[in-house]
Structures are given as C-alpha cells and as structure tokens.
Amino acid sequence: QSVLTQPPSASGTPGQRVTISCSGSSSNIGSAAVNWYQQLPGTAPKLLIHSNNQRPSGVPDRFSGSQSGTSASLAISGLQSEDEADYYCAAWDDSLNGYWVFGGGTKLTVL
Amino acid sequence: QVQLVQSGTEVKKPGASVKISCKASGYTFSSYYMHWVRQAPGQGLEWMGLINPSGGSTNYAQKFQGRVTMTRDTSTSTVYMELSSLRGEDTAVYYCARDRGPSPGTGLNWFDPWGQGTLVTVSS
Q1: Do A104 and B113 touch (CB under 8 A)?
Q2: Which of A7, A19, B1, B7 is least buried, going by the fewest C-beta atoms within 10 A?
Q3: Is residue B102 predicted with pLDDT exceeding 90?
Q4: CB-closest option in B44, B45, B107 to A94
C-alpha cells in the first residue's frame, strides 16, 4: 500500500494527451515538492520532472507537471510509442522522522 | 558524466546479510547525499534511507531500522548498503540514487541519477 495514490494504468493513442494523477496528504504533497520518474521496461528509474514542474535538460517539453493542494499530475502531450513505461510520483513526507514516499506507479500503454 | 555503478547480482539464503556497493564518478563525491531505494518484483519503489558521504551520517526509513547499515568509502567514492536478517520479502532490485536540490529533508530535493540496480534474491 503506497502512501501516494496513482492509477495503476493509463493509455492513449499516438499524438494524444494523457494525464496521470498522484494523490497524497498534508504531510507530503501538501508541504513538499513532487517529483516524477519514468521507468522504461527493464531499466532504472529516470528523473522526468522535479520540483512540481521543472524539466531536467534533455526531457522533451511534451512532459509537464503540476501540483495543487495535496495532489499532483503529470501530463504527456503528443504521445509517442517510446513513452510506454511506468511512471512514479514521489515526495518527502515530514511525518515520523521524515522519509521519502512514492506512488504505486502507473503503467502507461501506447495503443 | 555523472555515473553510479552498482555491484552485481546476489543470491542469499534467509537469515544472511547482503552488502551492495555503488561507485560514483563524474562529480565531487562528498558534496551530494546518496539514497537507497528498492523495488520488489512487479512492485513499486520503496525508500530505504540515505547517507551523507561527507561525514557518514545516515537517516534510515523506520521500516529498516536495525537491519540496514549504510556506509561510505571516500577514497574510492563508493557507498555501501548492507541489509541483514534477510527474508524472502527482501527479494528486490536495489538502487542507489544521488540526492539533488537545496538540502535533504526540506521537501525540495529529488533523485538524479540512479544506479543501474542490483538484484538480490533471497531463497533457501
């Protein structure tokens, strides 16, 4: 049971826009920045979005992030076949002694 | 370029310990905290803790307190994660990941890059 809640799956056709949600609480998303990671099949996670909406260099501007209250979302526009992957949200949770929490992951299928 | 290279696959029996290494290159080792994250087969990501390579201080997730030990060797720019009293549920891929951002614990940081992962299988 993950602290952050994501839909287990999402899908879209090439060229479409898809969004993936991430729901948390006041101790994590409500008080910290959200990061998103992309995990292609059989590989390590890769940073996709940090600080709610910042794209590292090399990440296409088709990827964007937003945060409001205790929820965040990742949007992918102009969907491409190579976007088929698992996507995870993450945030610092300041409960207990503080720890990092992740969403359960969303498997994106490009139809 | 910044690179994290982890040690190879491990197979351990229940009750044993495993020690995984993560060798950093391409940046000043002592300037960035390092995290350990694991992923059980077909499951999501789980944070285990972090180490400050500069002074060696650690912060472990409550779930792993008493079973995990993170250390570093500044002479080789390598961090280690040792997990003891292994059980089947510890079967997972273990990743190291460099901390980025203003300061750990502020809620403003992120992980980048990640090591390639080390598969640990616990089986009798």
Answers
A1: no
A2: B1
A3: no
A4: B107
Tens-digit pLDDT profile for residues B51-78? 999 999 999 999 999 999 999 999 999 9
Using the CB atoms, write b or e for A46-62: b if 16+ within 10 Å. bbbbbbbeebeeebeee
Shortest Cα–Cα distance, A80 to chain B (Å)? 24
Nearest-CB residue to B62 (from A91, A92, A96): A96
**Would you list which residues of chain A are within 8 Å, Cβ to Cβ, of chain B?**
2, 31-33, 35, 37, 44-47, 50-51, 56, 88, 90-92, 94, 96-105
Contact, A6 vs A67, CB < 8 A?
no
Name which of B42, B28, B50, B19 is nearest B120 in CA terms. Answer: B19
**Residue A92 CB neighbours (<10 A):** 25
pLDDT of residue B36: 98
d(CA A64, CA B22): 31
Please give the share of chain A, as a percent, with pLDDT higher than 90. Answer: 95
Q: Tell me how close the Cα of A23 comes to any Cα of chain B, in angstroms.
A: 15
Note the pLDDT of residue A21: 98
- Residue A95 phi/psi, 5-degree rounding, is -80, 170
Residue A96, pLDDT score: 82
- Only one residue has tokens 């390579």, namely B53
Token pair 């060229």: residue: A15
Three-state DSSP at A60 gives coil
